[in-house]
Design goal:
Blueprint lengths: L1 H36 L5 H14 L1 H26 L2 H17 L3 H11 L9 H15 L3
Helix pairs in contact: 1-2, 1-3, 2-3, 3-6
Length: about 140
Amino acid sequence: MVLSGLAYNCFVGGWEGLSAALFGMVVGLACLLPLYSVGGMGAGDVKLMAGVGAWLGASITIYAFCVSAIVGAVMAVWMVWRRKSFIHHYANFLTILSEWTQIKDPRQLSQIAAERKPRMLLLPYGIPICIGSIAYFFYAGIV
């Protein structure tokens, strides 16, 4: 997705289009890379957001990311509500928040997250990215 977005924008806009696509890709990476670095996000989700950036540019990527974050939050709350495990997940949230405020080494945070991952309810974040991006496209009149 990233390569096709870069190629398309280069073909349509020349060097200017390629530079806009590269900047959009970097913005897409920057949106999710911090979460990936501490084990809270999969690499595929990060690459998907980078692909959105390569195709659509920086400003649309930021807006699509914001809507995706809202969609992801709603989906996460719905998943927890359906499983009736609010207290368990709230305790996990407090533990993770405590770790992030006390541990400053991203490698250590990543290792702790990897150990905890098999016991966690995981949200496939590609779904909120797609829903949020498409919702923003309709809102902005892009589609």
